């Protein structure tokens, strides 16, 4: 076909020589085989697709390797192209590049693939069972090559992990634009996504995995801390100035994000028992100090918990076993659970995210490979029984909330209609609240408080200490409500709580003005040489970052929770204002077709240019979410929008709703009396 020489037409490409096949370190978790259901023609297409990265001289050899990988793993990861040894985010000046952003993104990518950070590092999975940095190691190598040559007048385009190319732009434009897993509506479902992923054309970016802003489980500790503390205040009547001392929190999952639960509960003063089927993940969290005790015995787990509850001392206990066994046991023993949740990977229950009762973790992995249909049936049975146990505990006064893993949706998909609010379908949500619906939405997102974060690119812990102190000073001086005080305590004690895994990063919930002013302060510190460059970002799980009816937008009640325009506008607006990196994804924490989410990365190099971008983009990035929530008639969002209109008079302006508060009768009559 080719009358042109492709090899000569490219200057950025993989090296001609194939790298040595790397050795794989023992004891590093490996992803289970992924489902694909490819036809023979599809398999050929998948190999043809992967060969696009490879010089034709090597096609015969690589076609065989790729076919083998596809058969064994359900995906082509291009293992040969994985660099030998361990990857980790290094100090920024150790990377090659023509601009600070190109080097900064390399730090973030490699941090996402660090053995200490990533869930399945050899399969490029950072967290959330399937959330990948990109699809394969050829893409990884090529992205790095592009980032090494990227200038401050170009933009790199990355589509589902594939670096499409460099295009000229300008100094105030994003240096990298990422999209992951976005699908045409009629194909926007798990089955078609799995096929596309196996063909090598779709990446599951989760939220910050494919957006390269994951910072280890610390990223979720603050949100979990806020959720638990506020659940205690709202549902257990704990006063604003007290914590969860003596209270029991029970949950499941010590993986990528779920691994934050023990730490967050401990910081909130609670006693927690966390079930986890995979011993290796328990060991990771135990050696990191993120859980304080571990046991295989239900009796021992309970006696440890009871002792700490009596002493009112915090403690995080990892129970090695299935969460449903744990719930059955606690129910039989008549133990009162104050707060109950679950953070197994229920956004992909049939792909290994949820372990059925009666199977060990190893048996689950084997069955996924040998009998995937039988596995699905076991998952459904356990989900239904899990739900029964929750209902029984709820009747005894336990507060259960869905913690953003699509647990309730998975129960519904397993055939339980009674879980629906309207008894019929999932359109009006479920009878148990999502944590956003009851807690995080009204008490944080509606004000604009969300998971702002930063990474000190120098890798120097002193830089992190200085930024923590600067952020704490700012919040202390601007203490308006209990949320500010909680955030102050959080950042004041952050170092003491030893949360850094991987690069020197910090998460700190802040509202629009907090984020802007702290960002400007950090940029000034970079300018003055007090600290090295910093990469700002946030979780996509934020006020304006994600449209997801079962999670981030579950407290939006005007019917627009099925729309995906906010996250899209947020992303486009951040591009228009010049954020360094912007990302838009399908799926995120709740699964394909169930969310559209976006995020950003902003490199602070100390320049005036960055100050200007921050002034434009930081308020926008948050207030787009507040404005949308305000239009949905959410009270706290409306009051925040009113304040914003006053603050930015003559410059920004948010449309506010006239709320038909006392008009129920008028509206009912109007509908009834239509001729
Ligand atoms: N609430 C949030 O803000 C938020 C943020 C990120 C991710 N999530 C969602 O939370 C879920 C977990 O994320 P993750 O990164 O921790 O995923 P993960 O896959 O790394 O961890 C889940 C853990 O649950 C364990 N597990 C599965 N079934 C079990 C069972 N029946 N009993 C006991 N343990 C079991 C697995 O072994 C695994 O370690 C995902 O669905 C993700 O999308 C929520």
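Sequence proposed for the structure above (675 residues):
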């Amino acid at each position: 076909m080719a009358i042109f020489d492709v090899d000569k037409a490219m200057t950025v490409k993989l090296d001609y020589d194939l790298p040595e096949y790397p050795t794989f370190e023992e004891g590093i978790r490996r992803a289970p085989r992924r489902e694909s259901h490819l036809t023979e023609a599809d398999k050929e297409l998948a190999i043809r697709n992967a060969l696009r990265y490879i010089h034709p001289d090597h096609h015969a050899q690589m076609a065989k390797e790729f076919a083998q990988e596809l058969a064994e793993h359900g995906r082509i990861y291009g293992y040969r192209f994985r660099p030998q040894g361990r990857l980790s985010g290094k100090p920024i000046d150790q990377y090659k590049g023509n601009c600070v952003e190109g080097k900064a993104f390399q730090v973030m990518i490699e941090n996402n693939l660090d053995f200490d950070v990533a869930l399945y590092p050899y399969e490029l999975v950072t967290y959330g069972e399937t959330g990948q940095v990109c699809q394969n190691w050829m893409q990884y190598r090529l992205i790095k090559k592009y980032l090494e040559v990227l200038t401050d007048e170009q933009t790199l385009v990355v589509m589902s992990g594939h670096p499409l190319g460099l295009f000229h732009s300008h100094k105030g434009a994003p240096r990298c634009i990422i999209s992951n897993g976005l699908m045409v509506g009629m194909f926007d479902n798990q089955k078609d996504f799995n096929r596309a992923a196996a063909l090598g054309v779709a990446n599951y970016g989760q939220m910050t995995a494919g957006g390269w802003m994951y910072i280890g489980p610390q990223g979720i500790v603050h949100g979990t801390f806020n959720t638990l503390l506020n659940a205690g205040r709202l549902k257990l009547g704990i006063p604003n100035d007290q914590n969860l001392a003596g209270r029991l929190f029970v949950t499941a999952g010590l993986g990528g994000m779920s691994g934050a639960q023990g730490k967050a509960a401990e910081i909130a003063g609670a006693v927690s028992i966390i079930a986890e089927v995979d011993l290796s993940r328990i060991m990771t969290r135990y050696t990191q100090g993120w859980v304080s005790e571990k046991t295989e015995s239900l009796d021992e787990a309970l006696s440890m918990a009871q002792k700490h509850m009596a002493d009112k001392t915090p403690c995080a206990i990892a129970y090695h076993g299935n969460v449903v066994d744990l719930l059955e046991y606690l129910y039989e023993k008549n133990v009162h659970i104050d707060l109950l949740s679950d953070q197994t990977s229920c956004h992909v229950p049939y792909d290994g995210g949820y372990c059925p009762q009666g199977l060990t973790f190893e048996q689950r992995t084997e069955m996924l490979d040998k009998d995937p249909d039988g596995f699905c049936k076991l998952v459904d049975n356990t989900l239904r029984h899990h739900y029964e146990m929750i209902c029984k505990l709820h009747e005894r006064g336990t507060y259960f909330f869905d913690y953003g893993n699509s647990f309730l949706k998975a129960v519904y998909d397993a055939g339980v209609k009674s879980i629906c609010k309207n008894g019929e379908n999932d359109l009006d949500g479920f009878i148990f609240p999502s944590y956003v619906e009851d807690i995080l939405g009204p008490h944080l997102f509606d004000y604009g408080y969300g998971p702002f974060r930063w990474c000190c690119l120098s890798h120097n812990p002193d830089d992190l200490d200085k930024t923590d102190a600067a952020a704490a000073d700012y919040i202390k001086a601007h203490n308006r409500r209990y949320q500010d005080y909680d955030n102050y305590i959080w950042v004041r004690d952050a170092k003491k709580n030893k949360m850094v895994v991987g690069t020197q990063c910090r998460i700190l919930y802040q509202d629009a003005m907090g984020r802007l002013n702290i960002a400007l302060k950090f940029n000034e510190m970079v300018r003055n040489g007090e600290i090295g460059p910093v990469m700002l970002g946030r979780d996509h799980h934020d006020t304006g970052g994600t449209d997801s009816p079962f999670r981030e937008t579950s407290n939006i009640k005007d019917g627009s929770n099925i729309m995906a325009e906010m996250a899209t506008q947020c992303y486009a607006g951040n591009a228009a204002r010049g954020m360094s990196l912007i990302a838009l994804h399908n799926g995120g924490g709740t699964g394909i077709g169930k969310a559209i989410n976006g995020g950003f990365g902003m490199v602070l190099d100390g320049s005036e240019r960055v100050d200007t971008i921050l002034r434009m983009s930081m308020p926008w990035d948050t207030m787009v979410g507040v404005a949308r929530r305000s239009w949905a008639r959410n009270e706290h969002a409306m009051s925040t929008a009113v304040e914003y209109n006053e603050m930015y008079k003559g410059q920004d302006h948010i449309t506010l709703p006239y709320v038909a508060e006392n008009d129920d009768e008028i509206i009912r009559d109007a509908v009834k009396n239509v001729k």
